[in-house]
Design a protein that fits this description.
Blueprint (H helix, E strand, L loop, with lengths): L8 H4 L9 H8 L6 H7 L4 H8 L1 H10 L5 E5 L6 E3 L20 E7 L2 E6 L6 E5 L4 E4 L12 E6 L10 E8 L7 E7 L4 E9 L11 E3 L2 E5 L5 E5 L4 E5 L8 E5 L2 E8 L2 E7 L16 E8 L11 E7 L2 E6 L2 E6 L4 E4 L9 E5 L7
Antiparallel strand pairs: 1-2, 1-23, 3-4, 4-5, 5-6, 7-8, 8-9, 9-10, 11-12, 12-13, 13-14, 15-16, 16-17, 17-18, 19-20, 20-21, 21-22
């Protein structure tokens, strides 16, 4: 009768993994969710943590786990880039000016810890780099003329089963053979070469560089006319999408969908792409291309309603923007506004940065 009351030795054993010490739980299950600068500081905690963080497997795991926005790289004309963050203690890079690259560069795009840069002069070579590890690779010369300020997008999505960083570059550029047309060229690190798409977009649109956003296999660019040009990497097809937002609106990502963000005073509004085929639906169907999704107020004391506003990034549940001389960060989950201790110039070109240890 008492047989069922005996303690289970497997559960109560002191060495059981069910009773891991707190430091071991943090090491095994929490460290990978920290940005790179915090991890470098954690290496001084103990020998075990240092060894854990130094392994290629951990670097791969951290690039899969950490998706927060660490800050912004900003660059003005003919000047080296600089880095700005709302959390200097946790986020940062050892060389914000990217002087470890062989030539002075302009930052073109970023994706999950990797940066796409381009030689300012010479043959305009593209470079892929990780600002944290200072690793870099040059990209073979493209086949087409991408122009002096290319609308190029870097796509890097870490894979659980692939330790090697595989990425793509997608560039939309004015056609040399057809007036008022756009062509697309794609570079694949897996293939190690560029490929010119057979698709040509006859939309007569001038694309704005650095507005490119990649969502679920489709790249979107904002045009100077205010609408959006898309290119589907899987279907190898382009499309023109109408946008009913102001000229200062920004493309971003919200809940895994393309969104546009705009501001009026201290009010920020986001709308998401709902149905790109709404214009082909029958009259009265109620189908809408864009749907209102989120509106919030910037209520920080340092932000003035009268100051001009400019949103520079939307993604990962965060909105970053300028309010006159102040840079702010708004967390859509916490509904909190933070102010950057230092603010880049209002007209500086900005690129968001995610601090990961991904290996090149």
């Amino acid at each position: 009768m008492d047989r069922g009351k005996k303690p289970n030795k497997l559960i109560t054993a002191k060495n059981s993994k069910l009773y891991m010490e707190l430091k071991d739980i943090i090491r095994e299950h929490a460290l990978a969710f920290l940005p790179a600068k915090s991890l470098f500081r954690c290496q001084g905690v103990c020998r075990d943590w240092k060894l854990q963080i130094s392994t290629p497997f951990f670097a791969h795991n951290q690039s899969l786990s950490y998706h927060g926005i660490s800050g912004l790289f900003c660059q003005t004309h003919d000047n080296p880039p600089s880095f700005f963050t709302s959390d200097p203690k946790s986020c940062g890079v050892p060389d914000p000016s990217l002087k470890f690259l062989p030539v002075p560069v302009d930052i073109r795009s970023s994706s999950n810890g990797l940066f796409l840069c381009q030689d300012r002069s010479g043959d305009k070579t593209y470079y892929i780099c990780n600002p944290v590890t200072k690793q870099w690779k040059s990209i073979p010369q493209q086949n087409s003329d991408h122009g002096s300020d290319p609308a190029v997008v870097l796509i890097f999505e870490p894979s659980l089963l692939n330790f090697e960083a595989e990425y793509k570059l997608v560039c939309a550029f004015p056609s040399a053979d057809f007036d008022d047309a756009i062509e697309f060229e794609i570079y694949s690190s897996k293939e190690g070469s560029w490929k010119l798409s057979g698709e040509i977009c006859f939309a007569d649109r001038k694309l704005i560089s650095r507005t490119g956003v990649h969502v679920n296999g489709i790249v979107y660019w904002k045009s100077r006319s205010g609408d959006v040009v898309s290119f589907d990497l899987i279907k190898d097809r382009s499309q023109l999408i109408q946008v009913y937002a102001g000229p200062s609106s920004l493309l971003g990502i919200m809940d895994g969908k393309l969104c546009t963000a705009s501001s009026s005073g201290n009010t920020v509004s986001l709308v998401t792409l709902s149905n790109v085929h709404s214009n082909t639906m029958q009259i009265g169907s109620g189908a809408r291309t864009w749907k209102d999704k989120y509106t919030f107020q910037l209520d920080h004391a340092a932000l003035s309603v009268r100051e001009p506003k400019r949103i520079v990034y939307v993604g990962n549940g965060v909105v970053l923007g300028h309010s006159g001389p102040v840079m702010y960060s708004y967390d859509m989950k916490k509904k909190e506004t933070m102010i950057f201790p230092e603010t880049p110039l209002y007209d500086a070109r900005t690129v968001p940065y995610t601090s990961t240890l991904v290996y090149l």
